[in-house]
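W.,

You were right to be curious about this one. When I first looked at the sequence I had no strong expectations either way, so I just let the prediction run and decided to look at it fresh. Below is the sequence, 612 residues in total, followed by the output.
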Amino acid sequence: MLLLLIVAGALLATLSVRRSLLAAQADLRQARADLINGDAAGAQHAFALAGERFHSVRGGAPGLFLKATGWMPGLGHSAETTLAIADAGGTASDAGGLMAAAVVQTPGGLAALSPNGGGFSIDALTPLTQAVSRADVLLTQALASVRKSPGSFLVGPVANARTLLLAQLGSLQAEVHSSSSILQGLPTFLGQDAPRNYLLTAQDPAEQRGTGGVIGAYTILTVDNGRFSFAPFKPIQSLPIPPLNQVPAPSAEYAKNYNQFRSGERFWLAINLTPDFPTAAQAILNAYKVAEGVQLDGVIFTDPFALKALLRVEGATEIPKLGTRVSAANVVSLVTNRAFSIFPNPNVRKQVLGAVATAVVQGFVHGPKVSIPDLKILAASVGEGHILVYSTDPVIEQGLRGTGAGGALPAASGDFLAVIENSAGANKVDYYQDRSVTYTAVLAEGGTAAGTTEVRLTNNAPTSGQPAYVIGPHPGFSRAGESSQLLNVYCGAACEFLSATKDGVPVNLGSGTELGHVFFQGFFRTPSGQTSDLRIDSFRRGAWKPSGSGGTYQLTYLGQTTVRPTTLRVVVVVPDGAHITSTSPSMQIAGTTAVWSGTPTHRMLFTVDFSG
């Protein structure tokens, strides 16, 4: 009888704790929303309220009762883990409160993260830098405490709460850690101690490259104690071409995969075939030093979608050399397509497009501080990889690699997919291409999976009516309006090729490795008005993690900037005899199959949990 009363009391205590934890989680969601919307004071209050709820769990009567039942078989682990969750929630709340308080104390709040009147006020960032650094420490401690808590023999709600918190805390800690590194490295990056010089380039996704698009023009951006200045933009082909054997490769792997495409006039145009931006940036810095005898401090890539985001913030800009106003509505079509008809001379065109980029970027740098909604627009553009930043300073570079701005090919546990095109047609017909990707993973025993990747490329380019520079023909590369692509499909480290077909006909593909990922590679031509279908079947070990009678499958998807958005469909079929217990938001469940379809973001994580 006494044992029954103790068990009943423990269950009631657990329910009480659960209500407190749910209320605290609601406070955290409100705090995050307030912080994102610029209400730092409101966020500070909500974080404090959440912290009080979390901390009261351990000290209150329900928490004390759970401690007292820690010795009981079947209840002890659940009680211990529940209290660990409460402690971690309290610590995370404290971390959020520190950051919110720092934003309150920073002149201009989060808007201090944007330039004003030609530069940044470096000293104004000090309180925020210190607070984020301290929050990073607290979140690391919170994550460690949950990881140390019992993960087995838990009642269902506690097990689910632990799994969810580990995922959420892990993501949050990674974001805050990256932010801390970036803030700590910003003074050096912004030239507080000495001027810093960066190669600023404009990518054109109408001619695809691994990082987004071919480099059309460049300038040298100098940052001196937070103040920005720009040299005139020049065509990338105006740089001297150094002998390839005199330029150190960023890695032996890069040289093996890409040096074969960088001969002669293609040297600078093919330097960013890799989807890993830090590798491409290192290749550029090494080549620039040999070509110009100057060691730069970093590389910044922008594309037309970055200019579009900036113009949404600052409004339309008059471009005297263009004789018209450039706006968010017309800048992408202008720089990726229409400019080739308006300015047939490539040198003139690149000077004009350089003037567009200069006017837009300088308008942002020299304008007033932006609002919170404007910061959201810019942050979204950075997150989608439209602005990429590499620094030779290891502190800020470490932080950048954890964000969309770093452009790093991510290491991924579990399954992985990236479809990367590099135009081989010496034209701009990627402007007219539609791309769809379908990936199907059929899970089997022992963490294995059979993977099928289907890529459809539809070429809508005309064969006439556009300059030859846009649609060709280019003898030796492509016919008029023809798309010619070097296509790489990346998967995880333990990925084995089974077979491939193009338009239903078996084909042989090359293969290689890059930064821990296997890729399959082939050249494909798609004439104007036609469609190419590629199918690759593969086998993957370690695609999912077994757990008890079920397991967890995770797929990391890395996108590539295209003028016309890629469409993606992900299909996951769980092992025979299993049923799906949970999935990532917006995945649809139909029996033993989970499906997601739509326009993907630059990087996505799909998770499917199942039980036997």
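Here's what jumped out at me. Residues 196-406 form a domain with the Aminopeptidase fold (CATH 3.40.630). And, maybe more interesting for your project: The longest strand covers residues 214-224.

Coffee later to discuss?

I.
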